[in-house]
User: Fold this.
Amino acid sequence: MADLTEDWQKALCDNGFDPSRPSLWLAEGLLVYLEAADAEAVVDGIDRLSAPGSSAAFTTRNRAAVARTFTADAYADVRRLWRSAINVQGYLEGRGWSVDVTDPGDVLREHDRGEAAAQIDPVMPPQLMVARR
Assistant:
């Protein structure tokens, strides 16, 4: 286990992670709970530790969604914990990654999960992002 606000990259490598081999990263529902500097450091660490052939998947929110006040929905208590929304796509594309962004509602509907898709905030939905190096 590692604290993502500290040197988690060293801990990972000290425990057998090989940054010379392609890797797959998943940051689902993570970055919004970190302060912006810590979220950027996580994405930077993923970038630095990823060999060619690596992939990374993220769920992200835009700044407007994080700043929005939630008062009367079932997830309001969780959303009050959101701290930041960084531009993961721009950061990774600027470092040579290829990034695809998808609407999660589309993915759910493609897999016959229309009821789940209907529960997504239509005004400010999350984004599903897959980056490839």
